[in-house]
Amino acid sequence: MNIAFTVSDNYIDYMGTTLLSILKHNKEEAITVYLLTTAISPYSLFKLKRLEKDYEQLTIKVRVVDASQFDNLPLNRSHITRPEVYFRMAFPSLLPEVDKILYLDSDLLVKKDLTTLWNTDLEGNYMAAVSEPPSEGGFDYRKSIGMRQPELYFNSGVLLMDLKKMRNDGIEKRLLACGQEIKDKILLQDQDIINVALEGQIKPIDIIYNYGYMERQANLRSDDELVIIHFSLEKPWDTSLDVAEYNRQAVNDYLAHYQTYRSTIEPLISVIIPLTGNTQELKKTLSSIAEQTYKNIDCILLDFGTSDSYQEILAAHRPHLPALRIYRFDPKDSSRTLELGFKLAMGDYLTTIVANDWVDKDYLATLYRLLMEEQATTSLCLASFFNWEDQIFRFYPEVSLSDNQPTGLNYLQALADSNLINLPYYQSSAGILLSRRHYETHESAIAQLPDKLAIRGLLLLSQKLAVSKDCLYISSQTNSEQAYDSEELVQYFQQLQTYLALEKQIAPSNNRFYRSELERLSQQAKRSKHPLNQTIDQHLKKLDFIEGIRN
């Protein structure tokens, strides 16, 4: 069975929901889907591949179409403003290898097997479709655009098309010429053109194959008879609509399929937001999360004793982040965001976004796509930092990695070699997506460590790391580097010794990283004129001795 959709990139998930409903009721049928669009994002392609991977009978072929031939045709409907609406008129040339196609709109829900529809005998007609009942004044309008038999007017949301016959008879040329001729008269775009150009050459089929707004309002069929429901007026994903009772069951059925589709391609990601200082830009942080391309989000705020009043901000964002939750902790626990967050998180993946920071709309989508494509346990991205004092952006230098498939170890070593190791961004869990499985596997090794060290331990234990070259995270740090004071140096050095325990679980070569940590710390101590560097030198000598024994 060949099925075609013509959609813009922002309709991919609605098309995916329709496709999922087809797959659910056509499990034995091999299905080839042709997706025609003017442009498609890498993440949309990734989602389609995920769906294709989960269903063996499904093959998806994407065609990016030059829409310039439709430039002169009107886009005069408030909810249909993209040229893709006209692509079905050019299927004979856009799909030259296909002789027969079932075109479907992306606001449909399939409730039964489509085999009977697919096997419909067109009896010499170019298409088969469902004829709409007329709206008030409908006959007069149909005559005004050039129809001679206004009682038969077909909805173009479901079209069974004989492309071979259309090619042989030059029908594509006829449709495009008709469009130019009546473009100043029509209101319903391609649908009007198809009805005028092919009047008398479209086979009527039962309304159960395209049961839309007018059919449902007139209660022409019972729900158990329907094969395809068409949301031709109210869109079920539009949460601003108060769905009329006559359509409520259909909408609920669609939303159940939509949720199944989303969870199939987007497992739950928990976003942890620690609140430690002022929260003056929390609104911007939450807005950047609510606007993510990736939608299946579990959002958790950890309040470590802030005195700010941000309840109004949370209330404003709950409609867009329905899973938004908040927990309060003692300020002394603020260095354990990762540990506390994973205990509360419901997602299969976790990331941290610090309050007052914000992220690009493709932040989660890119990091998750990288994880799946690289089959990695951890992914991360570049960042810039916004200086509130001078109101300008500064970009962190890119970390140079020679390995095309980096591990966490060589990433941390590259940080050390590039003098970026003391950037606050690289010492936190911000800008990193972790899989729950990776965290739980190594939880005992990093237990009780503060975030700065725990995240480095998890990176160190990442056998495969996916690194985005895109700058997706914006930090609100007021300085790009931090120096340790004497007390921090002592604490950091004590914590650093935990790597000796970690080192027992991983390859001996990791002593190189441990050495680089000690050497960096020694330099900090010398700049601070702190005697700790003498102790560090003693440990470096011990490390030399250990390496000598191993060699």
TrEMBL record:
The keyword GTP-binding does not apply. This is Glycosyltransferase. The lineage of its organism: Bacteria, Bacillati, Bacillota, Bacilli, Lactobacillales. Keywords: Glycosyltransferase, Metal-binding, Transferase. It holds the Pfam family Glycos_transf_2. GO terms for molecular function: glycosyltransferase activity. Its EC number is 2.4.-.-. The keyword Transferase applies. Residues 270-389 form the Glycosyltransferase 2-like domain.
